[in-house]
Amino acid sequence: MIDLRRLHVLRAVDHYGTVTAAARALHFTPSAASQQIRQLARELGVVLLEPQGRGVRLTPAARGLLAHADAIEARWEQAEHELRGGDDQPAGLLRLSGFAVAISNLLAPLAATLSARHPRLTVRIQEAEVPESFNLLFEGEVDLAIVEATPENPSRGDERFDQQPLMDDPFDLVVADKHPFAARDRVQLAECVTEDWVVPLPTCPCWPHVVAACSAAGFTPNVVHRAEEWNATAHLVAHGLGVALVPRLALIPPHLPVTRVACAGTPHRKLLTCTRNGARQRPAVAAALEELRANALTAVA
Fold first, then answer.
1. Which long-range contacts (C-beta less than 8 Å, at least 24 apart) are formed by 109-112?
2. 69 lies in the same domain as 133
3. Predicted local confidence at residue 82, as pLDDT
4. Assign residue 129 a region: left if phi > 0, alpha if psi is -120 to 50, beta otherwise?
């Protein structure tokens, strides 16, 4: 019989990319993690890891084994719900994660609503950027995450996760109140060709959206300032230091002298709900997803 603990170490190596990173996430030493995989390989009579440069890579046998392991994890999620007696009332602990904007607009109201409707349910929220949310789901530390769709995410076909569209979050052009565009109901992005720009850092998931939108409008933005937080971006714009594309869900301090202007040709970022595969039927998760879908309809109206 396969040792499921050792199988989980192999899954962690696949998820984190190296034995060292997997060991760190599982609170093992690298040597202990390697030993677990060697023992699993001996039990199965196959090679699971092979050298690649200074590191290792999974063999085809390991890849085949992981396909079954992901299916086992999904079935376990289903079995856990059934073994609890089929109680359809949300109860127990529900752990949520998301990036800051998702918490402010979606998860905080969700937690308040669920706590009021379901007294037996305890909701916990953890702020996490997109890669960390996937790690938390994989490690079993959270049950439901709101993530932004990015090219670096696991593929939508990844058997470990169930990723479903939640909403599109459009970008608005943000300008200082004294800017000529502030009096307009709508502008074309191509009209911003001569503007100075405040843009996200290249590490921000929104950076590719801004670059792609400007490129599609026929220009490269004249970047004069970069900021990680939307609050910092808004302050730079308020002082007349540039214009910016900001997602509609992003909160801007109401006292700042800036105006959001609808901008034709700007992109939408896609937000997803993500669970471990097989977890969506759990009553607490199902209740949270239903409420999120309802709130998403009005969140960017």
1. 109/295, 110/288, 110/291, 110/292, 110/295
2. no
3. 59
4. beta
Query: What's at 231, amino acid-wise?
Result: N
**φ and ψ at residue 291, rounded to 5 degrees:** -70, -40
Q: pTM for this one?
A: 0.78
Q: For residues 178 and 262, state if they share a domain.
A: yes
Note whether 58 and 48 are within 8 A (CB): yes
User: What are 293's two structure tokens?
Assistant: 């879908």
- Summarised one tens digit per residue, pLDDT across range 65-85 is 888 877 777 776 666 665 565
Q: What is the mean pLDDT of residues 267-275?
A: 94
pLDDT at 271 over 90: yes
Q: For residue 245, what are the CA distances in angstroms to 56, 71, 104? A: 42, 41, 19
User: Can you give the residue range of the structural domain that contains 46?
Assistant: 4-82
> 110 and 172: one domain?
no
Using a pLDDT cut of 70, give the percent of the chain over it: 95
Instruction: Tell me how far apart the alpha carbons of residues 5 and 2 are, in angstroms, rounded to a whole number.
Output: 9
The last residue of a domain, from among 60, 82, 104: 82
Write the CA distances from 246 to 38, 65, 226, integer angstroms: 50, 44, 13
Mean pLDDT within 99-127? 95
CATH number, domain of 211, equals 3.40.190.10
Same domain, 136 and 279: yes
DSSP H helical ranges for the chain: 4-16, 19-26, 30-44, 60-83, 100-102, 108-117, 130-138, 207-216, 230-238, 283-299
User: If we measure between CA atoms, which residue out of 300, 293, 282 comes closest to residue 87?
Assistant: 282
